[in-house]
Amino acid sequence: MPRTTSHPSAPPEPGPTAPESAPGPADLGPLGRLGGRCARHPLTVIAVWLLILVAALTGRHLVGPVFSDQVSLPGTASHTGADLLARSLPQAGRPSGKIVFHTGTGTVADRRSGLDRTLAELRGLPHVTAVGAPVTSTDGRTAQTTVTFDEQLKNLGHDYTARLDTATAPARAAGLGVAYGGDLDQVVRQPANDKFSEGVGVVAALVILLLAFGSLLAALLPLATALISVGVGLGVVGVVAGVVSFATSAMTLAGMIGLGVGIDYALFLTTRFRQDLIDGHDPVTAAARTARTSGRAVLIAALTVAVAMLSLYACGLSFIGRIGLAATLAVVVTAAAALTLVPAALGLVGTRIDRVRLRRRPVAEGTGARPGGNRYAALVARRPWLFLAAGTAVLAICAAPALSLRLGHVDAGADKPGSSTRTAYDWIAAADGPGFGKGANGPVVTVIDLSRAHTPADRITTEVTDALRATHGVAAFTPVRASPDGGILVTTLTPATGPQDAATGTLLDTLSDRTLPGALHGTGARAYLTGTVAGQADFRATVGERLPLVIGIVLVLAFLLLLVVFRSLVIPLKAVVLNLLTTAASYGVLVAVFQWGWGDALLGLSEPVPIESYVPMMMFAIVFGLSMDYEIFLLSRIAEAWHRTGDNRLAVGEGLSATARVISAAALIMTAVFLSFTASPTVVVKMLALGLAISVIVDATVVRLVLVPSAMFLMGRANWWIPRRLDGLLPRVRA
């Protein structure tokens, strides 16, 4: 029986140190030759990118992108219930929203004339098909009416708010406060404007670049190229959004990730370029060498991010998959700019890159194999077990809160105080009476399908009514009534708690698993919960079921990519484990801040909120992709030294000392960019921004500076182990 042999990836025998000669065109590889051509013709390349920028932004303006957070879940109970409702009660299934009226003194009835004129004006608005009779609270100070439309509310546009304001002006003139709630948030909620966040991120990045580089041109170059690539990327996303509907947070997320990785990629290339200049190469050759080495790492890093983001489609939810697509488009454009625009800019600036200095000695990547690396690397090498244990303990502490992670939906109660949606939510929650109370902001429609029932409808009505009365957590429900065609029974129930309260989720589970099946047992009828809150619960359950699949796909694809690139089984396995720890730590911080309320006031939140159901899935893909950036840049330098010297200890020390300063600067920049987006008015964006910032901090410090070197020092030559037969089967990747 043949025996499978294994071996570490064998490096060439190290020889005497000699000055490295400039590689010829054949040695540069495709990326090196591309970088060299761009550096030789910088003005042409820059002009082409500027034309692409103008074309992308113009195309976005002409196409008119559409963004919506509406989710369709065919096959779920909420979707089936909505279909039954639309067939038997078409009016009930049409888009609708609430308009709430409130007075601090007296009652709404005292101002009835102004309210009546407003209702008449609302009936005359375009796309309005019905305006319900006002429902008044017990104390008479709050009233609400339901407005039904013949058009999806997202299609009305934010400008429709002006029409609503005009129609409700008589009520305001009569002294009534007016606010818009329910699904009207799709109309009145202002589109997220994150220009301020982007500006803060850019300024912070410039300061860090100036401190890191010590040169004005070297600091401006990564920033300028990143801004151009982000502009193109957002233009492309906008054009695609004219055909494919993205979530409202997709554009912000694409800009946030694009800006972060764009500056990082340019930073890594610029530091390598400066080192090649210091080593005596001319600017064009230095740009070509930079594209060959650091450009290869950029390409692999961008590919890893793209694979992770596109893996979100595996969850089967187009809403989430398209957010990943938007981020992927931004990253792909950014990587293309890093491999062409950055070398062109470097070739144009050339040796003048350090002309305007803020410090005497410019910062660049280190070269040369120094035994043990710098003093820190030597310290880690002497006590690897201590560093490994300490780093693991820090991540475990950060990850501990994730054990109490609760998924949910952030409702209008978390909107900015004073906003129309938040005001409507608070008025309804604070009032008493039918249609009011905390649960009235998230009513649940129960639809009972009678198509296969063999029990009389009146008996089913009695059984369901008795069961709902006996169910804990149901504050009120409307009489169970049959549709005109007799095909369904319908009742709308009001939970005793708000939409994002954990008790509301428990109530939905109780209703669907025990209460309604028990009441309908033996009747042949089936019950379905529908409405916004029920749909969100189905969405949350679907995400929870498919999260392991997405995690598995991302892990396998990342493992295979690193296996092919680094020709090692141990390195990709270590990377997967460490990235899982990083993600768990970021989850833990999110739970502590948002769910437990530790410091939520600093983020502009008035109360603790659950973790938005799709945020963990999104964060896993993004964090895994971004953390691989630093993994690949560090391991690329370690692998270069390993293949040159064959000394694992020396290679780890050299890679760590050569990249520590650059990775730290890049992490600071990306952290600053992400943290600037915590000022966004959108809670989901705040969650993603904080989670990504924490993950970058943890990854660039605890993981890259502590766990990676300590683990690699401990494993020695085993880091580069791969079965010989497997090594022969894997494709050879040379960029």
- What kind of sheet is the major sheet? 5 strands, antiparallel
Helical percentage? 55-70%
The stretches of 5 or more residues where confidence is low (pLDDT under 50) are: 1-22, 367-373
Average of per-residue pLDDT values: 85
How far do the termini sit from each other? 38 Å
Radius of gyration, in Å, reads 30 Å
Number of separate strands: 14
Q: What is the global morphology?
A: elongated
Beta content comes to 5-15%
Number of helices: 24
Q: State the secondary-structure class.
A: alpha+beta
Keywords: Cell membrane, Membrane, Transmembrane, Transmembrane helix
Region (Disordered): 1-29
Transmembrane segments: 43-63, 199-220, 227-247, 253-271, 297-320, 326-351, 385-403, 547-566, 578-598, 618-638, 658-677, 683-707
Subcellular location: Cell membrane
Descriptive tags:
single chain; 735 residues; alpha+beta; 5-stranded antiparallel sheet; elongated; disordered N terminus; MMPL family transporter
Structure description:
This protein has 24 helices and 14 strands. With 735 residues, the protein is α+β, with helices and mostly antiparallel strands. Helix 15 (384-399) packs antiparallel against helix 23 (683-715). The protein is elongated. Mean pLDDT is 85; it is low at 1-22 and 367-373.
